[in-house]
Amino acid sequence: MPAKASPRNHRNNPYVIDNWAAIVHHSTAGAVWRFRTELTTLAATATATWQLDRALTLTWALAILAAVGVAAAVLPWTRRLVTRRAWCVLSRHRLQRVFFETRMHTRSGRLSLVLRIHPTKVGERALIWCRAGICSEDLEAHTGEIAAACYAREARVERSRRWAQLVVVNIVRRDTLAAHNVIPSAVPRTPRAGAA
Hints:
Elements: H1 18-24, H2 28-34, H3 36-55, H4 58-74, H5 76-101, E1 113-119, E2 123-129, H6 136-141, H7 143-149, E3 154-159, E4 166-172
Antiparallel strand pairs: 1-2, 2-4, 3-4
């Protein structure tokens, strides 16, 4: 008896030509939007280097920027801030990759937009703008893939109460209520009555 074809198997795609449209559709504006954090950081670093070079020398400018980078990595509150923002940027890219790989895009290849992503106590929260043809149920069907792609414990999807096209994806990385150090009991175990 032949096995039933899986709807998730990419070889069973009835829209083979759509792959060409999805590849062609990438635009410069979309790439700038997806990499806005990296481009802003690069532009700020280049501007700071240029301004410090004008005021001092290039050697002192690089030394000052290196000292700022070391201070950001050493101080606990700045390290937490940088780490959480880095996880947000990584999660945004991984969400976009999941949208593409699980075919949660329009037939013309447009991905849903990650409008905003910010850190929470347990991970990240992303606000997604679903394109026409994509809904919150599509994201709920792929919560396992989203969690795996974002290196998280789980992913939760919430639909906006007011606007159907807005969806919130909660990426849960850590459980704040879990016990961190389990202390074993010092009381010796005694066998129960009637147990052999």
